[in-house]
Amino acid sequence: MDYKKRRIQAEIRGDFQPKDDDVYQHDGLGYRANISYTDQFKTGIGEIGISIGYQRQDTTAPEDYYNGNATFQPCNTSAINGGLATGTAAALITAGASLNCAQTTVARTAIPTTGSPAINVGETRGDTYYATSSRSFRTQQTAEVRDAVIGALQWRPSSQFEVSIDGQYSKRSSLEKRNVLAIAEGLRGIQPLLIGNGTNGYSPGALISYRGNSNIEDQLENRQRNEEYLGGGLSLIWRPDQWTISADASYSSSHRTETQKATRMRSTTRVGYTLTYERDNVVPNVVFDNFDVTNPANFLATAATAVYARNRFVTDRKDTIWAGRFDAQRQLDGFFTSFKVGARVSNHDRTNDNARNNDLATIPGTAAQAAAIITAANQNCRAPFTTRSYFDGDTNLNRFATFDNDCLFRTFTGSDDALPYPTDGRDPSDINVRERIYAGYGMASFRSALGETPFSGNIGLRYVRTDIRSVGYRQAYLITVDPTADTYVVAVDPAGALTQNTRKGRYSYLLPSANVAFDLTEKLKLRLAGYKAISRSGIESFGAGINLSPGPGTGVNNIILNATTGNPNLKPLRAWNADASLELYASKDTLLSVAGYYKWVTGAVIGASTPIPTPITVTTITLPGNVRQTQDLIINPVAPANDTETRHLYGVEVTAAHAFTWLPSPLDGFGFNVSGNRAFADFKFPDTSPLSTYLEPANLIGLSKYTASGSVYFEKGGFSLRGSYRYRSSYYKPNGGTNRSVRGAGYVNLSAQYDITKNVQLKAQALNVTSTKDVFYKGGYDSIAEVSNSGPQFFFGFRVRM
Length: 802
Description:
The structure is a single chain. By secondary structure, this protein is mainly beta. Among the domains are: 1-62 and 135-183 and 220-336 and 350-425, no CATH class; 432-571 and 605-642, no CATH class. It has 4 helices and 46 strands. It has a 22-stranded antiparallel barrel. Strands 28-24-23-33-34 form a 5-stranded mixed β-sheet, with no helix packed on it.
């Protein structure tokens, strides 16, 4: 009811993505369209306002990927002939080609065949380098459709009272068809040709060029994601005299599912190759020995275990949130201008059913029958390559053989509907968490003068309490013990049942705050603030499931179960904050500000580091004789923990803006905005991968030492043109507990709009016009873990208001 008039607005925005235009059978085009209607009515029961809108988006998300796998391993061995892919077992060992690289101080030996004596591995030892277990080159076809309806009803029976009701329903469907060429055995037979040492132009440990041999795989995958959201709220406002009293209640429910159907074809034999990062390229060149990677006939390993089919329910996530709020504010006269109190309560239930798999790892039947099925799949399921511009030619692997995933799945399993999902999807990785938050606050605003200097601000205190309840599962485990050999094997007990585990957590904090602004002059303002704040951990961190790592071990008197779990007792990140800024409004067209901040931070969440004593019951079998018994054990699953040290984050930010209104027309339409930030911090997140002894702990997640942005614009006569640049230096972005970082990068965006009339506006926009890539590294700036590139995006459209 703020518009006081009827309004109908429609906007259509088309998009063109060159990278999607290069995708097979795609044209790069998409759109987003929305329409809304707003109106007000005066009735016998008061003023009524309504608003309803609908939006639909049909687009794609093209992207090229290169992945070096998150699992990096330190090695110092160098195979004598790492590219040797075929030959006798003894010949391969003598060449050093059949073993994975390793970090070792002694010569290694290996047994060629059962019963034969061990022979020396053909390798030397040298500088340490960081190798990865696999390397993959991925293209994809994508499609995404979103629909949303939103509506609101407002009723104002009097000037003192109003009621609002709003709601939203939306759904999203997206599909990725992935096509991956994989060097599946990235550690096998490594023969380094160039290792970075910090003085040769490359970071220490970076494996810049090497020889090796591996099975080459074409991995296909279809990922379907569906999301549905329903939410609404009720709001009441009452304004008697000097009071403003408000309350609202809200509810939302969302459901996300993601399914995966995957297959694989494998090279007929292992292949020798040479991999090299050329000059500044972050996507490597790969030269295969006598292997045409574009020929589908070369992907014809016919062993029953050479291919697979997978039907996987990756995610079934449900979130239900309800919340209530009450606020009361009283206007005052004097030093204190108002006082406000309020209360909040919210409840978030998250369930996530993870990883319900049904895998076909072996083609059934005789060896001849399996070979016939795989041969038929190779001949009948070949497909055109996905794109014409994989990484825009930055690598020589810009084309490789591929297959139709649905055709392979159908051929391997016999049906599109084969491999149904397991009916019982319970798993230790599942999430079932309830997070309930209670909060109350009081705040007083004030205004006065210190001599000739006016000032204003507020002081307040907030109380927050959070209760966590988490339900998880643990599989039954069977430990087979051989006292004679002093060995054991931990495995899932097929005869056992899942055990449910319930854990709870709670925390509460008082959060004071104060801020004040001084009008030093008409053009100069000083702002000061001090406050305590918290930042909660993601709800998925509170999982109570316990994962034991199956596998063999030695030492029957010290059985290691390698258990991991979540931590419902995680506390939020807490910080005392001090902020100050000085703002100079030199004229109506000029702003210059300098701001500084300092934060004393405790409780940052560190990856798995705290053992949590947990009683469990396991079944053991003792050899010989297969004596079976149950045992009660106390295990210590490792969970995420809060950093007990006080860390520091501080920095300075400078902002400047100016409009050149003093220049003659049309130059008076130009202006600019610039800002820059320099941040410092002393956080320490230790690496948990095999590289941990070689790497320094990482700093604060997502923190760039340097960030900067700037824009130049022209606004005059209904025209608006703007060009902007955004830069951030490298920052830490972990992946699965490993300390992975993102290289610094800059992005250029352009936009334009023109008002044809006061009701019709044309718009155009170009994002990432320089096609900047996202580059992730691990262990060193040149040790590439992942590269992705979606290319530029162009948008064009119009808006009509009536």
